Amino acid sequence: MTDQTHKQALPWPKWFLISACLSALGGLLLIGIPGALVLEAVYWLQGLFGLQPRVIEGDAAWPTAIMIALLWPLPITPLAMLHHRFFPNQTNLTRWLFCLTGSLLVTLLITFMWLL
Length: 116
What we know:
Blueprint: H1 3-9, H2 13-29, H3 33-48, H4 61-71, H5 76-86, H6 92-114
Helix pairs in contact: 2-4, 2-5, 3-4, 3-6, 5-6
């Protein structure tokens, strides 16, 4: 494998890893507000499906929201690698949108299942 081939093969994962770290840091600096938004969305989805949500209120809600805000960026880099493997000719904007949307959906699904 030549140096040029190696640069073309994986030039971008470090940027997705950096974006995931910055997203987690931003969620921590915002004191879990992004995680609280995910919690509210999950409560709404559970009500939409007619399920009785396990509502976390008061002092227990903020640690949960902070944990969600720290965990939601984790799927960004694996999703970027999968997207690059199956759709190598897509633009970077498409890859970023796919990764961020996929990460949010994975987080909603995991939180939804955890609160059942």
